[in-house]
Here is the input.
Amino acid sequence: MTNKQNAIGVIVGRFQVHKLTEGHKEILDFVLSQNHYMNILVLGNPPRDVRCTKNNPLPYVSRKRMIEEEYPGKFEICYKTDVMSDEEWSSDLDKQILAITNGNSDVILYGSRDSFIEHYTGQFETYEYQQKLTLSGTKLREELKKNIGTSEDFRRGCIYATQNNWTYYYPTVDCAIFTDDSYSKIYLAKKPGEKTLRFPGGFIDPKDNSYEEAAIREAQEETGLKCKIEKYIGSFKVKDWRYFGEVEQVMTTLFLMTRVSGNPAPYDDIAELHLCNIKDLSIDDINPAHRQLFKTLISSL
Here is the structure.
């Protein structure tokens, strides 16, 4: 066991909160109470290409300043960027700590339950602190999203987050559902207030394991039908009126499907569900956002 008073105490954590919680302060105060020769705080950072996500909304400099204001001069603060391999991350962390300590290897790494410790494979001793207070940055962020601020700082923060995120497409799926493999009758939908027909479909859910799984789920959610996929038709940029004037747009994937079971009815955000003879449909019957999808489907039959 390392002599704590001669050792260097190192806390590794993310601290992705707008202010330190009592749980954060508990572990910080505990490490300071050990009277280490030196205290280092390593802030976990996502990979460079990951910006302003739900789990990592704050940049390093913002979190560093937050801790410095609460604990001025108490910690040497740095960051460690995530990498794919636990072994590589651990080795890099060890090297980074040794560079700060000028080679002093009397180091104790501190973490709490569900922290980095179970992934660490490096050379230093670890200590899992048993916290008395609940520590959950995730729950705190969930609570914060319910509160819309009105201050200038809040507006600046919202703009910062959007301007530093990547420009992206929202991935969706659309379902060309036929009654059987004769491909003569197709289920098409109308949303509230729409006069033209569209394919049932919707956004990819984070729980979906594939576009195919998402299409089967969306088909059932919006039509009540259990379906199977016959083939992939194509992917398309959709001119969704909700995103006119936005940098972000919608990209959809269309699947040809057939009904397996279930009673057809409109669900979710579908107002009407129609069974149509494919030969009786003209391009003008189709919602403008889905006309290219419809043309490609027809050419594939």
About this structure: The radius of gyration is 27 Å. Residues 86-100 form the longest helix (15 residues). Helices lie at 22-33, 60-70, 86-100, 137-144, 152-164, 211-223, 291-300. The chain has seven helices and eleven strands.
